Each structure stands twice: as C-alpha cells, then as structure tokens.
Amino acid sequence: MSGSAPVAVVTGGARRLGGHLCTMLAARGYDVVIFYLRSTAAAQALAQQIEGTGRRARARAVDVGVEAQVAAAFAEVARTEGRVDVLVNNVGNYNPQDITALTPAVWDATLATNLSGAYYCCFHALPLMPAEGNIINIGMAGLNGIRANTRGADYYVSKTGLLSLTRSLAAGYADRHIRVNMVSPGQLDNSVDLPPPHEMGLTVPLGRAGELRDVAQAVEYLLDARYVTGVNIDIAGGYRL
Questions:
Q1: How many whole angstroms separate alpha carbon 131 and alpha carbon 133?
Q2: Three-state SS for 188?
Q3: Which of 57, 173, 176, 239 is the least buried, fewest Cβ under 10 Å from its Cβ?
Q4: Is 155 marked active-site?
C-alpha cells in the first residue's frame, strides 16, 4: 500500500462518525488505515469503497485498549504505509448508566479504551509522523466547564482526561510542528440517548441534533489550521453552554 500520498489512521473507523471521517479524509487525498474492533464486514466494505475512489485503504482489527495490539498495528503501518500524517482517535465507549450502578469492570474497560487507548495510539504513531502532522482526538461537548455528570461518568472522566492529554501533547510536540487538537460533538442525530425532536431546543440552543458532516467540518478546519494547536472545539449547537 505504500505510496506518495499522506496517510491517515482512524480508530473506530468502520462505522458512524469514524466511517464518515475516513471517507472525508480519502476525499482530501489521504490513504486511510481503518482501525476497528468487531465490525469486520463494515470496515472491509468501507475500505473497498475508498479504494473505488482511487485512494488506498485497508482495514485492521485492533483493540486499542490493549497496548500490545496497538504496538503491533502501528508496526504494521510502519512496514506497509511507512508514515502517519493524521491520527484520529475516534473510539469512545459510552455506558449511560447511573454512577450508583457503575462497576469497577465497566470503569476499567471505559478508561482503557477511551483514554489509555488514545495514548497508546499517539505513542506509537508519533515516531511515524513527519513535521506538520496532526492528531485529532474526539471528545464530548462541555469539557471546558467541568460539572457533575451522574450518567456515563466513566465516559465523561475518560474524555476529560483525553482533553488534558491533548493539551500536554500539543505543548510537548510543538517543536516538531505536530499539532494536537480535540473536536467534541454534542447530541448527534445518531446518538444513543438523543431526545425527541420537539425537545431538542430544551438542551440545544440551535434546536437540532448535530450531523456527521458538522463534526467533519471541524476536523477539516483543524487539518488546515496550521497555527492552531491544543484547542478543543465543541460541535454542539450550544449544548451545555
């Protein structure tokens, strides 16, 4: 697969937002490596779809919460693609149970995937990343104003930690001109706990759910914004203001 085109790696890239971002990156001229966990058929179909547009693409099964698997996956990227120009840490396990029902096993699994997994991917991608490389982490709206969240607290904590990691990496790798930013969606039209349309305005000032293209637009901005690093952009229609 090695070629002259820039290379993007997207975790959780088989479906939903990840799949949309893979398609967008391919349209911008990137060869794409799709990391997925269980959605084999969807990942392979997406890779074939991208290949049909003239870009290179391949799908790679990896549990990002297991560092050894992440190391092996990026070693394969080093051999096959030879570089990583863009890393999108899109994986985000969400468990919307109340904090009083949260178990240590669920807590550990969420933190391993959402936070440690993002760190493992950054750690192994950075040696393959040239100057002007990009890391874009997918967070959740409202991280800039920390507040109590009794539903999905493990998810909220993991994404708050990811914001701190984003800023630390942005400062630490600025001398290599590698930019690290975060995009934080709010209520998307495919969210698992989306309110009915007539209630959207109660929590979202702009009165509608977000669309995948809204998030992709922010990611595209960050790809082009050569003087922006360490920021978090809420794509949420005013949700949690």
A1: 5
A2: strand
A3: 176
A4: yes
Kindly state the DSSP code that residue 37 receives in the 8-state scheme.
S
Residues 6+ apart with CB under 8 A from 67: 116, 120
Yes or no: say if 218 and 183 are a contact pair by the CB < 8 Å rule: yes
pTM: 0.94
Spatial CA neighbour of 85 closest among 33, 29, 8, 174: 8
CA distance 107 to 115: 11
Residues 7-235, CATH architecture: 3-Layer(aba) Sandwich (3.40)
Q: Do the beta carbons of residue 180 and residue 231 sit within 8 Å?
A: no
Angle at 2 between CA 215 and CA 27, to 5 degrees: 30
Residues 159-202: pLDDT tens digits? 999 999 999 999 999 999 999 999 999 888 877 777 888 888 88
Pair of tokens at residue 188: 């998307």
